[in-house]
């Protein structure tokens, strides 16, 4: 068994066609078929049922595919990290979610460049979920996200908590009401925009409750997980929004709010967006926050990341933002 044989098998399993797999791998069909036969002979197992169209994996083949795909992903990650360790990129590639861009990220990048005139920075708009794979592949060196990740290759630090605000149309009856309560918002259409959902957790998971009369003053302990982030916030207080609409991103959500089609919750840094059409009001719930995380690989830290952290904390000091200074640790 060697990598060429395994890669041939993976291509066949993915595309369910010898001709398509041959095109993808750059091999002739006879060569591809020979690689598969050698792999099967070496294992003493038939992996592909060749008599079905499209091709199907045998039960053993599906098991092998599931396990070996994970191994190959890790091998590719190790290869990429080894290459970067040998010759680190001079540029610092930073991933970010759009909501962070409305906060202090521009000031942080300006401070970083001011303190390090020779640094080259590349910014990439990329979701929290996609940042994990982008870190492993080397597309980014560090990422600003809104969600905690449980991944053996990734380490992250919590930079700060940002309060959520409720975004309402200017004509909404509650548009001028300060200190909003989630229970008072439950009869509105809630616009959902997160593409990344919370990981299921047996300790923190909650479920929507039918108790619409709750005051929203104390969280309720319930059992089943709600992983959509905004619904999760309501569920922590046993509240079920009457109606919801899912959209592709935050800008679309705010566009619908501006058009009077519903309300949503956004991090406080977005309070300057569409202010002629949208009213942003505080929530009384102090624990309704959106965290900001910084994450990178556990085993390889770009040499400029400490400079980035210095710039982050310098901006936080200037803006009077509460934080606990941290740094990444490296095994290398």
Regions with little confidence, pLDDT below 50 for 5+ residues = 201-222
Largest sheet: 7 strands, mixed
Order of helices and strands: HHHEEHEHHEHEEHEHEHEEEH
Helix content: 25-40%
Oligomerization category of the chains in this entry = single chain
Mean pLDDT: 87
> Which fold name corresponds to the CATH topology of the largest domain?
D-Maltodextrin-Binding Protein, domain 2
Whole-number radius of gyration?
25 Å
How many helices? 11
Q: What would CATH call the architecture of the largest domain?
A: 3-Layer(aba) Sandwich
Question: What percent of residues are in strands?
Answer: 15-25%
Describe the structure concisely for a colleague.
The chain is an alpha/beta fold and 332 residues long. The protein is built from eleven helices and eleven strands. β7, α9 and β8 form a beta-alpha-beta unit.
How does this structure look, described?
With 332 residues, the protein is of the alpha/beta class. The chain folds into two domains: 3-85, Arc Repressor Mutant, subunit A; 93-332, D-Maltodextrin-Binding Protein, domain 2. It is built from eleven helices and eleven strands. The strands form three sheets. Strands 3, 4, 5, 6, 9, 10 and 11 form a seven-stranded mixed β-sheet that branches. A two-stranded antiparallel sheet has the order 1-2. A two-stranded parallel sheet has the order 7-8. The protein is globular and about 75 Å long. The chain starts with a helix and ends in a 13-residue tail after the last helix. Mean pLDDT is 87; it is low at 201-222.
